[in-house]
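Q: What would this chain look like folded?
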Amino acid sequence: MGRGKVVLKRIENKINRQVTFAKRRNGLLKKAYELSVLCDAEVALIIFSTRGKLYEFASSSSMDKTLEKYQRYSYAQLESTTGQPDNNAQGRYQEYLKLKAKVESLKRTQRHVLGEDLEQLETNELHQLERQLDSTLKQVRSIRARHLLHQISDLQEKEKALVEMNKALQNKCETMQLSLETEEGNSNQPAAETEDFFEPLQSNNSLHIDRHNAAVTEQGHVVSSKQHAVGVMPGWMI
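A: My prediction, written as structure tokens:
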């Protein structure tokens, strides 16, 4: 039995759809390359994925050349079919050529500014390019100097604000230090008054008792150490 007819429709599964796209895209690019080599044909293939990613193949040196050739062929075919040129199509094609020439000129100027492809330029063109670069360099330096002046001004303002903040903090520290010194002075004042209240006692020399020459009895009488325990010795025996 032969294979039945395959109904082509959108693959609902996202993963399967991506896998199928990758496989068939590579196969299609391969077939386009084989066709261009085997048949010596000019082939251009453009593919956009669902995410907007571009895949292209051109057998010629540039895709733009192939598209330009396609535009010329389409315009000529339309003119030969209708017998008269379509004004709208002709206008669009002329606008396309102008835009393309402008893009090429901008790309060439960009390459020259970057220092590329300068060998093709003549002396006058090189001199003009040099003047253009000098003018651009002056503008860049002027804008850079203006930005630097703005930055310096901002830094000076920040420095001024920091100096004022430092002064305020210094004044606050001095105020707190004076307050602490005042509190310490008030706390030391009662101690001085207490010392003045309690006056020192004066020593009385008349009440001095020699420990070596006297002894105190249990009744509190002071007797000479030379006295005997039995009685008091007379003065002539001392």
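The chain has a mean pLDDT of 77.
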